[in-house]
Amino acid sequence: MSVPLQSDTVDVWRWDLSDSAWDQCATLLSRDEADKAARFRCEHLQAQYRRGRGVVRLILAQYLGRDPASLMLICDAFGKPAVADSPLHFNLSHSSREAILAIARQPVGIDIEYTERADIDVVSLLDLVCHAREKQVLLALDEVDCRLAFYRLWTQKEAYCKALGHGLQKTLSEILILQQPTGRFHIVDSGEAGERQLEIRSLPAPPGYLASLCVSVDVAQVRTYTPTADSEAVLQAADA
To answer: Residues 49, 40: contact at Cβ < 8 Å?
Structure first.
């Protein structure tokens, strides 16, 4: 039995990669995934990768009505993930200990970032990430607000690029993000031919994190969930 998902709905799942209860998911990984996990240099990163991929398989399997270990997860030339022989779209992001997954019936992009890294010099990255208009606004802010605004833009632009399927191949400074009266965000992209009916929406995130979702303007509902660590009842979720 599969979980219904309408074409105008996006489901967002967020979970804690530091929770060892997810170690049970390691048995669900493919041989390639297990080999990739083993190549990480430290056990901490190995465990996070296994927990991330394992939970993705658990959740996707519920929507598709399949055995999670049987899913064939593939990537295109730009690294955009998909389930082979499935119309379902999904996108995954993780930062520090948080993972976030978007599932939809149409292209979708998602990003989460930890905002309290001391080794990131935000000002030095403004030219790389920000449109000239955005940079002018950020430079007028104090240090704390500038950092938060920068990470907000970063998550928005990465989510947009992932929805397009380009990864981070685009020039981010050519993309202008404009907040609308609705609280959603309009995208102006001088480097993208044709009009894309996409918009950015902010997502709830734990303290110290920011998250953004890029979806079609036709999406009527975004549902947010937190999975349990019980593989038999992964969809016994609480609203985030």
So the answer is: yes
Q: Which tens digits make up the pLDDT trace of 106-157?
A: 999 999 999 999 889 999 999 999 999 999 999 999 999 999 999 999 999 9
**By the 8 A CB rule, do 148 and 155 touch?**
no
Domain range annotation of the chain:
9-237
Helix (H) or strand (E) holding 213: strand 209-216
pTM of the model: 0.92
The helix-helix angle for 31-39 and 43-64 (nearest 10°) equals 160
Q: What's the pLDDT tens digit per position in 86-106?
A: 999 999 999 999 999 999 999
Burial 125-153 (b: 16+ CB within 10 A, else e): ebeebbbeebbeebeeeeeeebbebbbbb
Task: Provide the CATH topology of domain 9-237.
Answer: Ribosomal Protein L22; Chain A (3.90.470)
